[in-house]
Design brief:
Blueprint (H helix, E strand, L loop, with lengths): L1 H36 L5 H35 L28 H5 L14 H21 L23 H25 L6 H17 L22 H29 L12 H20 L4 H19 L5 H18 L1 H5 L11 H17 L13
Length: about 400
């Protein structure tokens, strides 16, 4: 009996052992490597600093993967008109999952991918989504807490062995906003991956939670003339600050509408909001505009053409190698949170590149990326526009 229980737990023990080995390798290996390049440090002097890195990474990943677990529930229940509250349950026997079984990623591994009650298989999509969302949000958190991802943050990152997270109210507010925005993108991507329409509740809540914070606290926009709000003596204050927030939202929505119409040739060529406002193709166009609008509001209209192109290239890989059963819009929707994560984590580096569109770029840069958006239907196009009942 004991040997059978041990055999059942082998996958979980192996996973935990792998995580433990990575932790030990990072703390002691990186400390030794850094000490070898800095003679005034000993490896033992850096163990505590590297332990802080590990704790922050693990906590961020656990929190992010828990959000991923919730988004699995959202993607399954919301298109079916069900509530997203309550305990998770097996989709076949409807038995509620125990707390330890509901632990992100490792709960599925501990169950060996099967329901504890009915023993029917549980799709590996659940831990994959939890891990993907967890990694995405962890990268966002690490980049902002260590102050190396966003333009305008104090250049706390100096590359030395004693780096540590720097946390204050502005950093936490910005991080929370970006975590919520990326999570909304993931929710929309997972729903469209299954070819379901975006529920109205999700659209309304998603747009509200990315628009309202900017109107209340405009420094969340992260633009060149506004990031100085993080400094002790800001030079951009008053009512104009909130006017700028409103302009950001309006221009971002306009850019999303234009990009959506540009991509309609690929995903919904027969969409016509005037003559067929309730048609399936028109609804796909509305979903497409919303999918682009969320990152557009977060990043600004300047960067969204480049992010759209990057998302389209990622979507090609998703559709060809990962989820071959979805359509082009589903692959693009799932690729958007990945592209948004790349932009947020590499914001500072990308904004310094002359070829990447930002608030300081030349007009030709914007025109070049806008032209690239028009070319997206060449490599990402839906060949089959017939969809099942209840889907669009």
């Amino acid at each position: 009996m004991r040997s059978r229980r041990l055999l059942i737990r082998i996958p979980l023990l192996a996973a935990l052992a792998g995580v433990g080995a990575c932790i030990v390798a990072y703390i002691f290996g990186i400390a030794w490597l850094q000490a070898s390049y800095h003679s005034h440090y000993r490896p033992s002097d850096l163990w505590s600093a590297r332990s802080i890195d590990v704790v922050l990474f693990l906590w961020s990943f656990w929190f992010g993967s828990a959000i991923g677990s919730f988004l699995n529930v959202v993607a399954w229940r919301m298109p079916r008109g069900e509530g997203v509250g309550g305990r998770s349950h097996c989709p076949r026997c409807f038995d509620q999952l125990r707390a330890r079984d509901n632990f992100p990623v490792f709960g599925w591994i501990a169950l060996r991918g099967r329901c504890r009650t009915c023993r029917l298989p549980i799709s590996p999509r659940y831990p994959i989504v939890e891990a993907a969302v967890g990694l995405s949000l962890t990268l966002v958190a690490i980049g902002q807490l260590y102050q190396f991802s966003l333009p305008g943050q104090s250049r706390h990152w100096h590359g030395g062995p004693m780096w540590a997270p720097l946390i204050d109210g502005s950093v936490l507010a910005t991080l929370a906003y970006h975590v919520v925005a990326v999570s909304v993108c993931w929710a929309m991507g997972l729903i469209r991956l299954d070819r379901h329409r975006l529920p109205d509740r999700l659209i309304q809540c998603g747009l509200a939670i990315v628009v309202l914070p900017i109107l209340v606290y405009p420094p969340l926009m992260i633009v060149s003339w506004q990031v100085k709000q993080f400094s002790p003596t800001p030079d951009w204050t008053g009512v104009s600050l909130y006017v700028d927030g409103a302009v950001r939202v309006l221009t971002a929505m306009a850019a999303a509408a234009m990009i959506g119409r540009s991509l309609a040739r690929a995903f919904c060529p027969s969409a016509d909001p005037k003559l067929d406002p309730l048609g399936k193709s028109t609804r796909r166009l509305m979903d497409l505009i919303v999918i682009v609008a969320v990152p557009s509001i977060v990043l600004g209209w300047q960067a969204i053409p480049a992010v759209t192109v990057i998302a389209s290239l990622i979507a090609v890989l998703i559709r060809r190698w990962i989820v071959t059963t979805t359509d082009g819009l589903g692959a693009f929707a799932l690729a958007m949170p990945i592209a948004l994560t790349i932009q947020i984590v590499g914001w500072r580096i990308l904004s310094d590149q002359t070829w990447w569109p930002s608030s300081q770029s030349q007009p030709l840069i914007f025109l070049g990326w806008a032209a690239a958006v028009l070319l997206v239907p060449i490599w990402l196009r839906d060949r089959d526009h017939s969809f099942g009942r209840g889907r669009s």
